[in-house]
Fold:
Amino acid sequence: MGIRIYIGNLPKGLNLSEFEGILKATAEGVRFKPVLDKETKECRGFGFATANNEKNANLIIEKLNGFEFQGNKLRVERSEKKDSSSSKRNSSNVNKNNKRKNIKKIVHSDAPNSASPDPRWAGELSKLKELLANQKTPA
Structure:
């Protein structure tokens, strides 16, 4: 299993053969795949390299981070593992390792609550109570 490396701040008009030449000159056994726009097929500004061992991965990061390529300073770092539960495709799945705080959610309900009147009618209700209290009934 190779070590994935994120390479960012690539130019839109990436010359792939030129960039792969730089990678191969830096370390051996490195594969690179740019992330392309689906419609224009241009580089989206980043890609991923796979190094065959730890030594080569560290060498690439050390040599190419901040390296100027076609007018852009590259950002090179270890790629973080993609968490399958946070991906768009699996967003409906429940995260088994839920690290968020358990928060009590308050949900509005239209069910009658005996403790307090419906807030939509609270103003009218107080007026009615006042009218009833001031009303005199014949005895």
Notes: The first helix runs from residue 16 to 26. The first strand starts at residue 3 and ends at 8.
